[in-house]
Design a protein that fits this description.
- The longest helix is centred in the middle third of the chain and has 26 residues.
- The strands form three sheets. The chain has an eight-stranded mixed beta sheet. Strands 1-10-9-12-7 form a five-stranded mixed beta sheet, with no helix packed on it.
- Strand 9 and strand 10 form a beta hairpin.
- It is built from eight helices and 15 strands.
- The protein is globular.
- It has 340 residues and is α+β, with helices and mostly antiparallel strands.
- The structure holds N-oxalylglycine and nickel (II) ion (NI).
- The site of N-oxalylglycine has 11 residues, from strand 6, strand 12 and strand 13.
Length: 340
């Protein structure tokens, strides 16, 4: 129901029913560390070998890195953030037209994560769009704000090019042919989530998004440059806040690159927390293998006489499995380990 959207109601003094997590499952914000070491990679560096080595190192350790000089202009990034915020400020009746809690819909405005299934809700509204091929989907995107389709289309095109460039560098970093990963993933789908996290009266009790890994191949995240909220799990135990850096994009690996790399690269747990002072917007772009792509460890990365860490499967099989679970259960890839 559209009236569940957080962005259409006035600020409240306490959490409404259904949002507070049990004691053992709260963000414990006081224990979170601030990190300045999330790798920051300058894609315009003339030393290409070094860039590839830096990406490789980041994928092996953090599973997360930030890129600067990525080729997408500051002006475009600002426009995307502005039009995203404007969207969530549309009148309730306008937003109600797009509301749906059916996860298979290709264009929908929704709230939390999976309202039909979950027992505790999250402090987030989101607009989810399919973005490739653009001609197929743009006609059904929101027509308000009026500049939305144009700005977001241009951004989607540029993000895709950046994603493919990064997949090339990732292939090389793994010691594979530059086109290897792109070929295996096939004609990739591209999805977008515009995440809106309103100010929250009790941020210690709830999440914007609880801990999860991304099921796709590669995620490119544009974050509000002034408000932090993204946190990454380090060494399986410590939550680290990723501080936004103006004009940087945050890149994280999804489960499919962990599988393809035979476990060498990490699709790490991350979450979004909320705060009482400021609303926050983030725009996540997901590159996803085509549904029929057969994913499994690259043979070259499996040692002689060893079994691959994961069995092969189609992305379709993986994706169905992912959505049939709760977001914060065990790593979905664990269900695809090779049997001894
Ligand atoms: C996501 C995600 C983090 C954020 O959309 O998958 O992890 O900071 N978002 O919004
Ligand atoms: Ni994510």
């Amino acid at each position: 129901m559209a009236n569940q959207l957080l962005s259409t109601v006035a600020y409240r003094d306490s959490l409404p029913e259904g949002y507070a997590r049990p004691e053992h499952d709260r963000p414990r914000l006081a224990d979170v560390r601030t990190d300045t070491n999330i790798p920051l990679i300058d894609l315009a560096s003339p030393d290409r070998h070094r860039v590839i080595a830096e990406i490789d190192q980041a994928c092996r350790t953090y599973g997360f890195f930030q890129v600067i000089n990525h080729g997408i202009s500051e002006e475009l990034l600002e426009k995307v953030m502005a039009v995203g915020l404007e969207f969530f400020r549309l009148p309730p009746e306008e937003k109600a037209k797009l509301y749906s809690d059916e996860p298979s819909k290709k264009i929908r405005l929704s709230t939390s994560f999976n309202v039909r299934k979950e027992t505790v809700h999250n402090w987030r509204d989101y607009l989810r769009l399919h973005c490739h091929p653009l001609e197929e989907f743009v006609p059904d995107w929101p027509s308000h704000p009026e500049t939305f389709k144009e700005i977001i289309s241009v951004y989607c095109r540029e993000v895709r090019l950046l994603g493919l460039r990064l997949l090339g560098a990732i292939s090389l970093g793994l010691g594979l042919e530059e086109v290897y990963v792109e070929k295996v993933l096939g004609e990739q789908e591209q999805h977008m989530a515009v995440n809106y996290y309103p100010r929250c009266p009790e941020p210690d009790l709830t999440y914007g998004l609880p801990k999860h890994t991304d099921p796709n191949a590669l995620t490119i995240l544009l974050m509000d440059p002034h408000v932090s909220g993204l946190q990454v799990l380090r060494d399986g135990a410590k939550w680290i806040a990723v501080h936004p850096r103006p004009n940087a994009l945050v890149i994280n690996l999804g489960d499919q690159l962990q599988a393809l790399s035979n476990g060498a690269y990490k699709s790490v747990w991350h979450r979004a927390v909320v705060n009482a002072e400021q609303e926050r917007l983030s725009v996540a772009s997901f590159l996803c293998p085509c549904n029929s792509a057969v994913i499994g460890p690259a043979p070259k990365l499996v040692g002689d006489g060893e079994d691959p860490v994961y069995r092969s499967y189609t992305y379709d099989e993986y994706y169905k499995r992912f959505w049939s679970r709760n977001l914060d259960q065990e790593h979905c890839l664990e269900l695809f380990r090779s049997q001894d």
